[in-house]
Amino acid sequence: MHNLSGQIALVTGASRGLGRAAAFRLAEQGAHVIVHYGANQEAAEAVVAQIRRDGGQADAIGVDLAAVDGAHRLVEAVRALRINHLNVVVASAGIAEPALLGDQTVEAFDRHFAINVRAPFFLVQQLLPLLGEASSIIFVSSVAARSAVDGLSVYSATKGAVNVLVRNLAKELGQRGIRVNAVSPGAIDTDMGQVLLSTNDGREMIKGLQALKRIGQPDDVADAVLFLASNHSRWVTGESIDTSGGARL
Ligand SMILES: NC(=O)c1ccc[n+]([C@@H]2O[C@H](COP(=O)([O-])OP(=O)(O)OC[C@H]3O[C@@H](n4cnc5c(N)ncnc54)[C@H](OP(=O)(O)O)[C@@H]3O)[C@@H](O)[C@H]2O)c1
What we know:
Rossmann fold; seven-stranded parallel β-sheet
């Protein structure tokens, strides 16, 4: 249905969680996937090995996106693979370290903005020569950008910034035929999601907030990423698709 044969996709934070699920989805549809990771090389290489076992193409690249030049180094590494054109970019790498206002530190604040906002912004900037007509950029935002969650004010602010970037970059890059969108997950069953989902009470609380009464899985988000990556969403740009089972409607 979503044939991505011959296309090349870069997925950041693809060693785990939502990025990993998106990498598998895009590869299943025929894309050659660049699997980016931060610290978990072994996990990223396992993703690459699985994609290759399934008959697909993949390579792993490790870069710390907290570093000032992280996005620049990631693009250098992509070019070192002799890749000169990207059809799909999924910016999934991110952190969420809960803290109430009184416990927040400048260092943690800066780390959130460095990884969740600065890195994907400069990634898009540095990738511009590799992007062109019909390239699709997909940020991973969050429902936290529209709905307050205790202890996640800084994290939520980064996702609010991401939503603003999506609209502005979509406008700026539209003249080149490049689309820019986001998915906005609710609580999803990944390592990060355990902030809310690690206890039975937490899981019940989350289900209570959603219209659909189950816990969201990485594939629930990966399918929306696939839609935004594909030609099926060719007339969609500057948007964020809420992938939360209808959280806090
Ligand atoms: N899970 C949820 O409930 C949820 C809800 C809404 C939005 N989101 C968003 O979805 C995205 C993915 O979240 P997730 O649930 O998949 O999280 P996760 O399971 O914790 O995975 C995070 C990913 O980001 C990478 N990463 C983190 N810090 C990095 C750094 N400094 N440099 C490079 N890579 C780094 C990790 O790579 P390594 O492990 O290799 O370091 C890992 O692949 C994030 O942007 C998050 O904000 C998640």
